[in-house]
Amino acid sequence: MEDKVKRAGKLMYEEFQNNVPFSMLEENRPEDIDEAYAIQNEYTRLQVKNDSDGFSGYKIAFTTDVMQKHFGMDQPAYGRILTSNVFESPHYFNSADFSRLGVECEIAITIGKDISLESDEINKNVVFDSVESIALSFEIIDPRQSQTESISPLDMIAMNVSGAGVLMGNQINNWQNIDLPNSKCQLMIDGQTIGTGYGKDVDGHPILPIIWLAKKLSDQGNYLKAGDIVVTGSMLPPTFLGNRDATGQSSAILTMDKLGQVILNFK
Fold first, then answer.
1. Are strands 229-231 and 131-141 parallel, antiparallel or unpaired?
2. Which residue in 58, 94, 158, 211 is a FRET match for 165, CA 20 to 30 A apart?
3. 3-class secondary structure for 178-242?
4. Are strands 229-231 and 77-82 parallel, antiparallel or unpaired?
């Protein structure tokens, strides 16, 4: 398995560097979820090989039953956030730097203290007590095409679940005083409303998916660390950004009750 994991991770990294679709040749495809995460780990390790900062946290995908059923999963999945891919609002992106630049409308949670417990010791109280701050955010996604006819959920995990970074809004420390489940968000592109959603659209509460992540990492011999950033799932469907403005410049603005706004400029 080790040779296969290294071979698959190296191949994906080289294809990423050359901005070409992932080939995921049949003999390199993950056969189970453990192998999928092993390939993801090798692929992302190569991405940060020359980046002394390494990783800044995790993204959680497939947090709802609907999304799990759609992708044939029986649990959520996670990907890694590279420190070099953490940005502060407002920020400019060139869509030419991506295969397919897209955003998901999320709340980013910053962990304030380690959750280094056994899986069965991790619960809602432990997780909520570990949260230092929250911020409205765009998760940046780049779902690179594959040369294969179809992409399985295991392939998606190996590919880091399309994660390409996170654009952070202002940090909110007194988040406990905010009714996050009933807080409304709105996404606008060039002044046009694209959609609205609520915090409860993410598993009932945007912090709850961290329980699954903390347990999953514990089972894998890892843990959430103080300072980690976690984006827990989108309140709106993924939105892909193309040039919509005659000037060649466009803006995506995400707002949410009590959390402010996040601005992404792009062309």
1. unpaired
2. 211
3. CCCCCCEEEEEECCEEEEEEEHHHCCCCCCCHHHHHHHHHHHCCCCECCCCEEECCCCCCCEECC
4. unpaired
Return the structure tokens found at 20: 């070409």
Give the SS3 label for residue 15.
Answer: helix
Output the CA torsion sign for 101, 104, 106, 110: negative
Quick check: 138 pLDDT over 90? yes
Handedness of CA 17, 54, 175, 205 (dihedral sign): positive
AA identity, residue 187? L
pTM across the whole model: 0.92
**For the segment 76-105, what is each residue's pLDDT rounded down to a tens digit?**
999 999 999 999 999 999 988 888 899 999
- Tell me the angle at which helices 2-17 and 33-47 cross, rounded to the nearest 10 degrees: 50
Q: Which helix (H) or strand (E) holds 262?
A: strand 260-266
The residue assigned the tokens 């044939």 is: 72
pLDDT of residue 221: 96
Our CA dihedral for 198, 202, 206, 211, rounded to 10 degrees, sits at: 170
Place of tokens 């062309």: 267
